[in-house]
Write a structure and sequence with these properties.
The chain has helices at residues 2-14, 16-21, 27-41, 52-64, 66-73, 101-108. With 116 residues, it is mainly alpha-helical. It has a domain at 2-73. The N and C termini lie far apart (74 Å).
């Protein structure tokens, strides 16, 4: 049973780079992860004997971002297609025109209420 929890934790840690590259993620959430990485790499610890403070910090980060990180490792996140289709005309052979409501009334005559 504990193996499953460890597996989920490792999957969530594995998708953090994808999470950081996604443009749809709020900057506050990205900063939380970046702060956690900097804190782990920094030589300053609140509890210098054992990296307990680092573990507690990452449990807090993973717990707060668990729903967002689960989207990535479960495959529910669709890729960002904005770069792939930028400046491309993907709808060919379609003719359209924009009709203003005022000009439409002039062409069809005044609107009448059939109930009168």
């Amino acid at each position: 049973m504990n193996y499953l929890g460890l597996r989920i934790l490792l999957n969530r840690l594995r998708v953090i780079p994808y999470f950081l590259r996604d443009k749809t993620v709020k900057k506050r959430k990205k900063l939380l992860v970046i702060f956690g990485i900097i804190y782990v790499l920094a030589p300053i610890d609140l509890i210098p004997v054992f990296p307990l403070d680092d573990i507690i910090l990452w449990i807090f980060i993973i717990w707060n971002l668990k729903d967002e990180l689960d989207i990535y490792w479960k495959g529910d996140k669709n890729g960002d297609l904005s770069k792939k289709f930028r400046d491309k005309n993907i709808v060919d052979g379609v003719e359209f025109s924009v009709v203003d409501d005022d000009s439409r009334e002039d062409e069809t005559g005044p609107e009448t209420d059939p109930g009168k």
